[in-house]
């Protein structure tokens, strides 16, 4: 049995309290207005949840990945838009910057995101989503500067971030070995943030395109070594998938809880509908799936904390959690019936929010390829 430590239980309880008392009451309004959840994000920054795994020597919480997964689940169950904002800042921005940055870069671009600023991760392009090696963004050295040209798409935190981890081709002949990583600031000349996307779900999160038109940055904005970008991207996405798995867990569990509460109070045929075996089985199946997904996620988290290779485990956790969340949301909406289709109940938001988990940070199809290659090996 996977047993949480006292500290991990405390983190979960703290996250649950702030999620239910501060974040959940604001979630529906943020979603309807498609407004970035600044109040919720600021609360998480004050608690140290936006930089949970950053080393204490830099001012972070210095917590383990399991604690991060626990907090992500609670926050995402209250508001998936706030959850993905937290996930990106922790997993996709703070992690690669802390791991590959110089001390000067950490001072300038990591420490401010612990309590005040936000970060984003810019890998996807209009024609390069699941295949990052097909990216067309280029970075050319010109004296003591890098000049970037290209477009990025579907960038979470795009319109809210202050700093961006951006990937571009520095050696076209080397293909994926010619990708490098840079840190950009929102006010860099030639860097433009596009309009916020209007989305099916996670509507309050800021998702935008980015354009670099002769965007000039100093040579010391290179993150890691030249040509190391593909490795940085894949390594970062492994950890990011734990964050999205946890987000999906939160949505799925919230959907199950809503179904149970509604089934106990909704009267039909002389009693609560919770007594109907067909509905009980629906709830049982989703409860089982989410619990299995939770254990997959905790296992991947613990392997990461122990310095083990966890590519397959993170892929399995994200794949299973995201698809289980979609099924749980669908189940819950069905139990709610017509009321579930109304915006008076949160289940329609859970239903819309759940689907993105099977798409971003590795589609379900790509993750099946990752799992198969890790299990079978390349031949």
Strand content: 5-15%
CATH class categorisation of the largest domain: Mainly Alpha
CATH superfamily of the largest domain: Butyryl-CoA Dehydrogenase, subunit A, domain 3
Tell me what the CATH architecture of the largest domain is. Up-down Bundle
CATH topology of the largest domain: Butyryl-CoA Dehydrogenase, subunit A, domain 3
Terminal Cα span = 36 Å
Numbering strands along the chain, what is their spatial order in the largest sheet? 1-4-5-8
* Mean pLDDT, all residues: 97
Please, could you describe this protein's structure?
There is one protein chain. The chain is α+β, with helices and mostly antiparallel strands and 379 residues long. It has 3 domains: 6-115, Acyl-CoA dehydrogenase/oxidase, N-terminal domain (Butyryl-Coa Dehydrogenase, subunit A, domain 1); 119-230, Butyryl-CoA Dehydrogenase, subunit A, domain 2 (Beta Barrel); 231-376, Butyryl-CoA Dehydrogenase, subunit A, domain 3. 53% of the residues lie in helices and 15% in strands. It contains 11 helices and 10 strands. The strands form 3 sheets. A 4-stranded mixed β-sheet has the order 1-4-5-8. A 4-stranded antiparallel β-sheet has the order 2-3-7-6, covered by helices on one side. β9 (267-268) and β10 form a beta hairpin. α1 (6-33) runs antiparallel to α2 (38-47), α1 (6-33) packs parallel to α3 (65-78) and α4 (80-100) runs antiparallel to α7. The mean pLDDT is 97.
């Amino acid at each position: 049995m996977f047993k949480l430590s006292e500290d991990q239980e405390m983190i979960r309880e703290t996250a649950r309290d702030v999620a239910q008392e501060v974040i959940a009451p604001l979630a529906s309004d943020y979603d309807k207005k498609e407004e970035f959840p600044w109040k919720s994000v600021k609360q998480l920054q004050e608690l140290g949840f936006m930089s949970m795994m950053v080393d204490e020597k830099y001012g972070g919480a210095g917590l383990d990945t399991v604690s991060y997964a626990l907090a992500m689940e609670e926050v995402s169950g209250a508001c998936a838009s706030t959850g993905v904002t937290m996930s990106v800042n922790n997993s996709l921005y703070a992690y690669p910057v802390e791991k590959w940055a110089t001390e000067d870069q950490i001072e300038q671009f990591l420490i401010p995101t612990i309590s005040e600023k936000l970060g984003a991760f810019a890998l996807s392009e209009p024609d390069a989503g699941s295949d990052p090696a097909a990216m067309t963004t280029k970075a050319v050295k010109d004296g003591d500067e890098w000049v970037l040209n290209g477009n990025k798409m579907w960038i979470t935190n795009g319109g809210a971030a202050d700093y961006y981890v951006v990937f571009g081709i520095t050696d076209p002949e080397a293909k994926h070995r010619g990708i490098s990583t840079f840190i950009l600031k929102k006010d860099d000349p030639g860097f433009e943030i596009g309009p916020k996307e209007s989305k099916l779900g996670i509507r309050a999160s800021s998702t935008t395109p980015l354009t670099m038109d002769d965007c000039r940055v100093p040579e010391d904005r290179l993150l890691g070594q030249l040509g190391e970008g593909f490795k940085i991207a894949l390594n970062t996405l492994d950890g990011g998938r734990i964050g999205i798995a946890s987000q999906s867990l939160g949505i799925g569990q919230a959907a199950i809880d809503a179904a149970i509460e509604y089934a106990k109070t909704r009267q039909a045929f002389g009693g609560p509908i919770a007594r109907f075996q067909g509905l009980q089985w629906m709830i049982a199946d989703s409860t089982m799936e989410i619990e299995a997904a939770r254990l997959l996620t905790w296992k991947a988290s613990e392997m990461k904390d122990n310095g083990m290779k966890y590519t397959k485990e993170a892929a399995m956790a994200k794949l299973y959690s995201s698809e289980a969340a979609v099924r749980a949301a669908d189940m819950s909406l069905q139990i709610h019936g017509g009321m579930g289709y109304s915006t008076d109940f949160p289940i329609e938001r859970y239903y819309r929010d759940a689907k993105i988990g099977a798409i971003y940070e590795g589609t379900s199809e790509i993750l099946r390829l990752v799992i198969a290659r890790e299990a079978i090996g390349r031949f």
